[in-house]
Design brief:
Layout (H helix, E strand, L loop, with lengths): L1 H58 L2
Keywords: Cell membrane, Developmental protein, Membrane, Transmembrane, Transmembrane helix
Pfam family, one: DVL
Family: Belongs to the DVL/RTFL small polypeptides family.
């Protein structure tokens, strides 16, 4: 009887671990997507700032 309970507990804990891995994987994907979006946003801002600065410097001539 004890052996059956141990096996059941192992199976249950395995499903919990699999579920938590899926949840963690989804969280990782969301974080990766957010980082990628922020990187793109920062790239665009940096390009715009550089372009405006170049126009400002050329206007002083």
């Amino acid at each position: 009887m004890d052996m059956v309970q141990v096996q059941c507990n192992q199976v249950e804990s395995g499903t919990v671990k699999a579920h938590s891995k899926r949840t963690g994987n989804g969280f990782s994907r969301k974080c990766a997507a957010l980082v990628k979006e922020q990187r793109a946003h920062n790239y665009i801002l940096r390009r715009c700032a550089t372009m405006l600065l170049c126009w400002y410097i050329q206007g002083d001539d």
